[in-house]
Write a structure and sequence with these properties.
alpha+beta, four-stranded antiparallel β-sheet, globular
Length: 395
Amino acid sequence: MGELNDVLRGLRVQESGWYNLGEEIESGWNNLGEEIEELILAYLPVTCSVRVAAVCKRWRKIIMSPTYAALQNRVGVGKRSWFVLFGINELIHTRSQGFAFDPEEGRWNRVRLSRPPDFNRSSLRAMDGILFASSGPCLSKVCYTSETIKWKWKETSSSNSARIAPLVGVIGDTASSSFKLVLAGGIVDGDKDMVEMYDSLTNDWEICGSIPSEFNGGIFTQWLSSAVCREKFHVLDIHSGDTAFLDIRSKLWSRVRTLSLLGVIYCFLVTCNDRLLVAGVCNAVDGECLKIWNVDEATMECMEVTRMPDSLFSLFKDEDEDKETSLKVVGAGGLIYVFSEFHHKGYPVCMCDVAESGHVTWKRLPPLPPPVHRFNMVFCCSTFVKPSVCLGLNA
């Protein structure tokens, strides 16, 4: 470690943010060995890693390797999820736009959009870190992308029923060869209570019983929220607080219970640091506010974690609009994002950083980089980004 410390002390960081390496330092780098060199580079923010990959072939090989992203996650860099916003203009496709916020560098990146396979436009959704849509001649397939800032689409085999805008749960990493998708609700015809699970290894679907009747068969999924936490697919009625989960291993549903959330008008399920949380707009003594609660998965009891500062919540207030359709909440890792889908507000986004220690900080993200067009549909998700996926971003 002494040699490593000597090398690190020799690095001079200039105002431009680039490292100036003299001959002596360069010699030190060459003597470090690839493992130590990889560890040093792993502490760079994701988009900074991409820029550094252009310096030399050796660094590019390290940063583009499969082990680099895992190492970044281990040291804490890859654990902060990005917020991705897609605006779709159905009339003029060239006016559709995509934006991705990097929390490490605190700035927006533009995202190039590409059309998915033949799909049903009204079914395009963002959920659980992926974009997906019903596809195929009978809407029985699902096209999806986990690399949301690249729109690299894949398609499943045909399921047992046609669905539009179902709830989707992701178990595992859809960028790998082994993962599962759970679909509930949104069935066009047939058994409207049927829940199905897709296995990527077999490219086949399996029926997993029926969604509890308290959720009205999940036909109208706009009134439901879902999240996957520790191999359980949770479903929540955003108004009543009724909730249940599907155990992915046993493929059995739990009994329906009602969350005890005083004064809640509507709420959403999110995950954060492998914990199940509920974010909801509620009536407090001093007026409407947004709160976040931790949910005990064993007892389903809720404990308040934080309340959004009133100065930030005011960004989403508008007496002339339906908040239930405009205000959304997504989360992954230790970050929760609250945003509005309306253009006249400028699509404001706020971020809640929930540390594992319990410390919570709120902040408003910078405005989207202009120009920002008007959209027919807006989709947002929170996702983890690897350096290899960042190639092609326009800052």
